[in-house]
Amino acid sequence: MTTALSRTQIARRAAQDIPDGAYVNLGIGLPTLVANFVPKDREVIYHSENGILGMGPAPAPGTEDPDLINASKQYVTLLPGASIFHHTDAFVMMRGGHLDLALLGAFEVSRAGDLANWATLDDKTPPGVGGAMDLAAGAKAVWVLMDHTTKDGRPRIVEHCTYPLTARGVVKRIYTSLAVIDVTPDGLFVREMAPGLSFDDLQARTGAPLRLANDWRPIAID
Amino acid sequence: MTTALSRTQIARRAAQDIPDGAYVNLGIGLPTLVANFVPKDREVIYHSENGILGMGPAPAPGTEDPDLINASKQYVTLLPGASIFHHTDAFVMMRGGHLDLALLGAFEVSRAGDLANWATLDDKTPPGVGGAMDLAAGAKAVWVLMDHTTKDGRPRIVEHCTYPLTARGVVKRIYTSLAVIDVTPDGLFVREMAPGLSFDDLQARTGAPLRLANDWRPIAID
Amino acid sequence: MLDKRVKTLADAVAGIKDGAVVLIAGFGSSGIPVELIHALIDQGARDLTVVSNNAGSGRTDLAALLATGRVRKLICSYPKTSGSVVFEELYAAGKIELELVPQGTLSERMRAAGAGLGGFYTPTGVGTDLAKGKEVRKINGREYVFETPLKGDVALIKAERADRWGNLVYRGAARNFAPTMAMAADLTIVQAREIVELGALDPETIVTPGIFVDRVVHVPNPAAAGQP
Amino acid sequence: MLDKRVKTLADAVAGIKDGAVVLIAGFGSSGIPVELIHALIDQGARDLTVVSNNAGSGRTDLAALLATGRVRKLICSYPKTSGSVVFEELYAAGKIELELVPQGTLSERMRAAGAGLGGFYTPTGVGTDLAKGKEVRKINGREYVFETPLKGDVALIKAERADRWGNLVYRGAARNFAPTMAMAADLTIVQAREIVELGALDPETIVTPGIFVDRVVHVPNPAAAGQP
Q1: Do residue D118 and residue C204 have CB atoms under 8 angstroms apart?
Q2: For chain A, how long is the longest CA-to-CA vector?
Q3: How many Å apart are CA A57 and CA A63, to the nearest integer?
Q4: pLDDT 10s digits, A80-131
Q5: Chains that touch B (3 or more CB pairs under 8 A)
Q6: What is the SS3 string spanning chain D?
Q7: Chain B: nearest CA to D1, how far in angstroms?
Q8: Nearest by CB to A91, which of C107, C172, C174?
Q9: Range B56-69 average pLDDT
Q10: I need a surface site. Which of A83, A99, C153, D82 has the fewest CB within 10 A?
């Protein structure tokens, strides 16, 4: 019997891989949960596109500062060592390859690491891109966190993205509810699978060919 | 009998035309003298390419700060209201049309306002351009201060520059030892002449055709 | 004497013309020049192009400006912040044009205008719908999209402190787009919570040197943006 | 723990490779990282390309580095500051290559590298000898020269204060090229007159955020540049 990971568990799993001292941008949604689970002995520096480096946890109720918010417009705090800068410099950091990691949500990721995470195919609501394309194009590594399939069971890991692209060939690793997958020039390598899941089951729920790494292991869930 | 203006007098004359509240960059050499002669009731904000806006007069002996220097590497002071910024922003101001005036020295100026002020034709010494081209290309107005002729009597105002160009068509006004001349699409208009000088004399010392403005007057020298 | 202070909000926005490109600072509700936007509404200029990261939320400030129908076009990276109801209504009704620009490209395009550059090549957006129709060039083996400067006729800025030369400092991340917009507009108008004596700001910590600022108006108790 | 402090000048410059492009901050004698330059001389890397606004004066620091003969090429805007005797001798003898770049273009090219851009169009230099052989493009009726990013393998920076995350503030106009060079190099090495506790620098007045810095070494009494 397979236990798919919850959103919290996906975030928890990804958090274990963030290196000490890394500069990290957490995308809107699921990725923002990651900050809660990074091991306490690691010092991770969080970046926000509106000009903050060194964000700390959410403020205690009543101490919120309207001028300290993150990209999701949530209140944040500053850690000792934090810095404030203007938007253009914030994007110098993003576009210029200065961030070690961007953890992003996605609608789809392709076999080649193409990322689709900014626009749905819905024409009625206005589109919004924000900093998604800059971040995807510029971070040293992009990791995607997402459910392995859509709510109605269609794969999100696909041969070619059907949603509008955010950037081509940028995703290096995918953390899903079912697996941890590396995107490599030689294809998609499954590093970890949810406990109880077989490779064939995983492949059946994936829209692009997978390869099982020799040293694969079950995802460790607390 | 014609009295040519001294370098100090050229600087003094140009200084009278700097408007109150102007942002001004003074080039190396003769233009730096201008700051001494701006009427005291005008507030002029001096810019230096190494990241200073609001330079004041030279410091009193013994109070020099090695980290407060101008483009000529001379010690300066900061006025109340001064600001410090990095080099790239200093050139945003210069290139981006934010300076009202650049007062520059020159080897030659052409009828069309081409400026030659960065390189001699001497091959033995290394060339140096500094910020000359950025300033010439970007200031809202470029005024040139120079002797009317070379030491051996050749004109510096010419049909076409023989020295390497700094920028094309940028000079708006020329203050020389003999005249104040506006560079216009209709040609070079003489606004003022040194006392005692005839238009024919001036034209004879100039390498491009001049026109005498209807309201021309003698240069007022203290 | 160089004195950029003006007495009233009406003086601050005087002369803004119909058809103007107006850069409006702020990100979410932080750094929005609420009072200047309402002064612009009162001033009455129409057929405006507004450049702002978001499309306003609630019914005040940027949303109120949009609601007047005087904004022909919005150039923006993310017009769908929660509460962007006014924009969504106008957009659904086809009553406003939207130019969607990646956020970093938006900021960099304004910087290019302020810096006097003719354009730049960015890796952002290559191969996406937002690069359609744009020149793509391969430089050192990587593809880049050509982007052009985005200049404002006017910029509306909120600052924390200003002096009479127009030197500015901001409050926290309210800084966001303001320093870039200040340099990118022909007429930069600032509302400052506090106006201090010349010399009171440390030269080394001034964020926007006064050369980028044209008018400063004192707004001691600025309202929060995005109110219902 | 993120700790960019290193114990010695030798540790600070360890690993700089032969053939490296080295960005050296400073303007005239202000902001020159004298001790780091001498550490680089001791370290011994050769066949270097040095990017610096001037060519050094006197016989110390940059002039001393040039005198070792290990600098193949200098990219520079103004190599003829008074006292640039070492460079002038090398140049006259044909022993060093010079790429002369307008100062604003030099700075902007490094910024483009740091900002991840592929290049930009500048009005500076159009129609001059320094634009020869370069693409010229007319944009909105004005001519611009295409310029490419200038990236450093290493940047050597002098700061006034630093913390262990590498956040920096400078002293007066010694700031000059440092913030831009810090973002333009793969390995940014800083000598700081003072190293302070994390949190001691005001977040709003940090000039170079630590993300652009890799190593910080404490040099409490930096020597003046350009000594005989």
Answers
A1: no
A2: 52
A3: 12
A4: 999 999 999 999 999 999 999 999 999 999 999 999 999 887 777 788 999 9
A5: C, D
A6: CCCCEECCHHHHHCCCCCCCEEEECCECCECCCHHHHHHHHHHCCCCEEEECCCCCCCCCHHHHHHHCCCEEEEEECCCCCCCCHHHHHHHHCCCCEEEECCHHHHHHHHHHHHCCCCEEEECCCCCCHHHCCCCEEEECCEEEEEECCCCEEEEEEEEEEECCCCCEECCHHHHCCHHHHHHHEEEEEEEEEEECCCCCCCCCCCCECHHHCCEEEECCCCCCCCCC
A7: 30
A8: C107
A9: 94
A10: D82
Tell me the sheet residues that pair with B48.
Answer: B52
Residue C55 has pLDDT above 70, yes or no: yes
Q: Is the pLDDT of residue B72 over 70?
A: yes
Per DSSP, the three-state class of C24 is: strand
- Counting as low any pLDDT under 50, the low residues of chain D are none
CA distance D115 to chain A (A): 4
- Residue B129 contacts D where some CB pair is shorter than 8 Å: yes
Measured CA to CA, the distance from residue C224 to residue C83 in angstroms comes to 14
Rounded CA separation B66/D31 (Å): 9
Residue A3 pLDDT grade (very low, low, confident, very high; cuts 50, 70, 90): confident
Q: Which two tokens stand for residue D131?
A: 């634009």
State which residue of chain C sits closest to B46, comparing Cα positions. C211
Catalytic residue among B43, B49, B108, B192: B49
State yes or no: pLDDT of A1 exceeds 90: no
Match 């002071």 to its residue by tokens.
B77
pLDDT at residue A222 in the model: 66
Show the tokens assigned to B28.
């190396």
Specify burial of residue D7 (Cβ count, 10 A radius: 0-12, 13-18, 19+): exposed
Write phi, then psi, for D91 (nearest 5 degrees): -65, -45
Mean pLDDT of C203-212: 98
pLDDT at B222: 66
**Catalytic residue status for B49:** yes
Query: Residue B52's closest chain D neighbor by CA?
Result: D173
Nearest to D27 among B50, B91, B164 (CB): B50
Which of D109, D111, D117, D201 is the best substitution to test chain C (most C C-beta atoms within 10 A)? D117
C126 and chain A: CB distance < 8 Å anywhere? yes
Overall pTM surpassing 0.90 (yes/no)? yes
**Catalytic pick from A49, A64, A108, A159?**
A49
Using CB atoms, pick whichever of D116, D120, D205 lies closest to residue C117: D120
pLDDT tens digits for C99-131?
999 999 999 999 999 999 999 999 999 999 999
Question: Greatest CA separation found in chain C?
Answer: 55
Structure-block tokens of residue B24: 């001004």
CB burial of A142-153 (b: ≥16 within 10 Å; e: otherwise) equals bbbbbbbbeeee
Residue with tokens 């330059």: D37
Q: What span, in angstroms and rounded, lies between the C-alpha atoms of B35 and B15?
A: 7
- The encoded tokens of residue A84 equal 């404030």
Per cent of chain B over pLDDT 70 is 98
What percentage of chain C reaches a pLDDT higher than 70? 100
The count of other CB atoms within 10 Å of the CB of residue D113 is 25
D65-118 tens-digit pLDDT: 999 999 999 999 999 887 889 999 999 999 999 999 999 999 999 999 999 999
pLDDT surpasses 90 at C54:
yes
Smallest CA–CA distance from B137 into chain D, residue: D124
B208 Cα to chain C: minimum distance (Å): 31
ipTM above threshold 0.90: yes
**Mind telling me how many Å the CA of C4 is from chain A's nearest CA?**
23
A93 contacts D211? CB cut-off 8 A: yes
**Chain-chain contact of A80 with D164 (C-beta, under 8 angstroms):** no
Searching chain C, which residue's CA lies closest to the CA of residue D120? C120
Record: contact B81-C198, CB cut-off 8 A = yes
Q: How many Cβ atoms from other residues are within 10 Å of residue D184's Cβ?
A: 27
